[in-house]
Design a protein that fits this description.
Number of helices of chain B: 9
Order of helices and strands of chain B: HHHHHHHHH
Largest sheet of chain B: none
Shape of chain B: globular
Oligomer: heterodimer
Order of helices and strands of chain A: HHHHH
Structural class of chain A: mainly alpha
Shape of chain A: elongated
Strand content of chain A: under 5%
Radius of gyration of chain A: 25 Å
Distance between the termini of chain B: 63 Å
Radius of gyration of chain B: 19 Å
Strand content of chain B: under 5%
Largest sheet of chain A: none
Chain lengths: ~90, ~180
């Protein structure tokens, strides 16, 4: 395996998407290529940094607002007629 | 002879909802609400805009139930709808305020996490909308290239190329954090 193919495969490699044979070829290449080894380490660090990105919870009243909106849709007088005749 | 086709759990729930079972929609909402909200939040980095897009997505799923075709998995249809909602959002391209990382919205607060999370958010915000969404579907939703290409209606090679460029941009912007220490 050369560096070009190795770099094309890095993303799949760190996501464990490669076949056993391809993974073996990647590992063999990484054993002697310091530059690609560094790229793999960088990709792994990037992924772990992305994994740490937390998302705040939805605000108070989110579920209630959604329920009300869906209930309005459910109770719309012509919703079943519209669905029946596929009018959007 | 007719063979009964097997669907995944969520596709099956969606079919039940199409047949009038409201509790099936409730189950889908419980399963996907946090995922859709998280994707919208990371896309806009603004809670109000993310909540609006998440609500619009589930409203659209509710009213468009008849357009769902069980030949495709439910998750693909759902994220294709989320994509449509994001693309038509009034917040897209506007001067939406990126919410800062604060002690309040971090579970594990320490100075280093504030700094690194602020940096990654800025780097993500600097990507194009298409790059950011593709990365969100790939990294956080763990969808495959064919699945993402179906959601975004792009060919798989284009999706691979967008992902490659997006990650390369992030690596450059975040080099100070991702540069390996002690590698040969």
């Amino acid at each position: 395996m050369d560096c070009k193919i190795c770099r094309e495969n890095i993303h799949d490699f760190i996501k464990d998407n490669l076949s056993r044979k391809e993974t073996g070829q990647m590992n063999a290449h990484l054993d002697f290529c310091a530059e690609c080894h560094r790229e793999v380490a960088q990709e792994r660090n990037l992924s772990s940094m992305m994994n740490q990105w937390e998302v705040p919870k939805t605000g108070k009243g989110f579920d209630l607002r959604l329920d009300e909106r869906l209930a309005q849709e459910r109770n719309r007088p012509h919703s079943w007629f519209r669905r029946l005749f596929s009018v959007n | 002879m007719s063979a009964k086709r097997k669907y995944d759990k969520h596709t099956h729930l969606m079919l039940r909802f199409q047949n009038g079972d409201e509790s099936a929609f409730r189950s889908l909402l419980i399963s996907y609400k946090n995922r859709v909200y998280a994707l919208c939040y990371r896309f806009f980095q603004n809670q109000a805009a993310a909540e609006e897009a998440c609500q619009d997505s589930f409203h659209k799923i509710y009213v468009s139930r008849d357009s769902f075709q069980p030949e495709g998995a439910f998750v693909i249809w759902l994220f294709a709808i989320v994509n449509q909602v994001l693309q038509s959002s009034r917040h897209l391209g506007g001067n939406l305020k990126l919410e800062p990382v604060t002690r309040k919205n971090l579970k594990a607060y320490h100075t280093q996490s504030i700094e690194s999370q602020t940096t990654i958010r800025r780097a993500m915000a600097a990507l194009s909308n298409e790059e950011r969404l593709t990365l969100l579907l790939d990294h956080w939703e763990k969808l495959s290239i064919p699945e993402i290409s179906e959601i975004l209606n792009r060919n798989p090679l284009a999706v691979e190329s967008i992902l490659f460029k997006a990650r390369a941009k992030l690596r450059i912007k975040l080099a100070a954090y991702t540069e390996p220490v002690g590698v040969r």
